[in-house]
Write the structure tokens for this entry.
Amino acid sequence: MTRPPDHGGLSPTNPRGQTGWIEVISGSMFSGKTEELIRRLRRAQIARQSVAIFKPRLEDRYSESDIVSHSQLRIPSTPVGSPDEILQHADEADVIGIDEAQFFQQEIVDVARELANRGKRVVVAGLDKDFRGEPFGAMPELMAEAEYVTKTLAICMQCGEPANFTQRLTSDERRILIGETDLYEARCRRCYEPPVEKGNHFKDPT
């Protein structure tokens, strides 16, 4: 992706007047979101840009520190507990990568906006819908804020059609339940089975 032209607009937080922007990569599980995020960040590194990469601390399926795709591509990252920590570590970077954005608090939107206003390229990946097929966390607002949105599709594990839903294979009602193919499948609209309602709200993630 080519950097947009410099429009001036010097400020204390953007002394060179660079134009920043937000890119969002969204989709279901197993759709290649993290793989696409890693691809873009590696290209930035090859171009000798300074890159800072972050993920939620609770996301430790494959590694406590690296971002790892289902296909085992990986890139080093900094695990953080809150969006504010990203601001503390991203000041010197040209490009900011954020994975699993749906797990962050709503403040992730303000953080992404602030970084873009500072002239940085912000690349965010996350699930757009949870296992109930409902908008997940801050992802809808991030997509509305972004200049570029990429929707990735998986392959339905039942019929092979394009898949845009994440099917949970357990009766656990917690909204956040970290897992892989033992707990989830990618499903198309026809094969997706919404969970049976057992309450009026989600259980606490823990």
Summary: The first strand starts at residue 21 and ends at 27. The domain at 21-152 is CATH 3.40.50.300 (Rossmann fold).
